[in-house]
Amino acid sequence: MSWLPLYNAWMICLAIVSFFLWKLLGVLLLIFALFMSFSYLVKESLGNMTHYVYAFWLFIMTEGLIFGSLFLAVLWNETCFSESISSFLELPFLGCFLLIGSSLTVTAYHHSVGTKYGSLFLLSTLLLGASFVVLQIFEMYDCECDWVYSVYYAACFSTVGLHFLHVIIGLIGLSVIFIFGDVNLNVFYNDVIIWYWHFVDYIWLLVYLVVYLS
């Protein structure tokens, strides 16, 4: 049993309290804690330790419940006067193609680990994911509504923002594989990061359906 989940839970609790109380010290401690957690994960991934796949699927299940709660909040607070935060045929639609494309390239990478084409597929996934991040930044910059306008907009921005955070985390994980090499990392972490990226890709389709098309 690892101590890391309990440690991370307390650090996240500290960060949330600090955000509400506007305490900079708590945020700085969170950054330090994230660095320590990341360092431990890298060290662990380079070793031969026993891992349990079902723990990751429990994590995915909790993530799905969080997104499901936000989807419900968006649909519950939507009215006939509610307008989408962005046109569904513009940047969000392009984002669907970028993430679906990245899902295809990461699948190709997963089936070519250790070959000369593996790094090329992984680099393509990173470029597509980074393009999606840039696309989202432009979308938020051009958005004419604000999260303080109504509960509906707050729920929409929370949903899109949470997914944006997951994309960033996924890109960090893929970057670790790209930097350290797929043969140097534990196979478990390679699989987990790829599965996580698939989750991020396909949850975007639900975000697009609920936030932009509903």
UniProtKB/TrEMBL annotation:
Domain of life: Eukaryota
GO biological process: aerobic electron transport chain
Ranges for domain Heme-copper oxidase subunit III family profile: 1-214
Keywords: Membrane, Mitochondrion, Translocase, Transmembrane, Transmembrane helix
Coiled-coil residues: none
Annotated CDD domains: Heme_Cu_Oxidase_III_like
GO CC list: membrane
Membrane topology: Multi-pass membrane protein
Transmembrane segments: 12-42, 54-76, 88-111, 117-138, 150-181, 193-213
InterPro entries to which the protein is assigned, alphabetical: Cyt_c/ubiquinol_Oxase_su3 (IPR024791), Cyt_c_oxidase-like_su3 (IPR000298), Cyt_c_oxidase_su3-like_sf (IPR035973), Cyt_c_oxidase_su3_a-hlx (IPR013833)
Subcellular location: Membrane
GO terms of molecular function: cytochrome-c oxidase activity
Role, per record: Component of the cytochrome c oxidase, the last enzyme in the mitochondrial electron transport chain which drives oxidative phosphorylation. The respiratory chain contains 3 multisubunit complexes succinate dehydrogenase (complex II, CII), ubiquinol-cytochrome c oxidoreductase (cytochrome b-c1 complex, complex III, CIII) and cytochrome c oxidase (complex IV, CIV), that cooperate to transfer electrons derived from NADH and succinate to molecular oxygen, creating an electrochemical gradient over the inner membrane that drives transmembrane transport and the ATP synthase.
PANTHER family linked to this entry: CYTOCHROME C OXIDASE SUBUNIT 3, CYTOCHROME C OXIDASE SUBUNIT III
Family assignment from sequence similarity: Belongs to the cytochrome c oxidase subunit 3 family.
Name listed for the protein in its UniProt record: Cytochrome c oxidase subunit 3
Organism, scientific name: Gastrothylax crumenifer (Rumen worm)
Designated gene of the protein: COX3
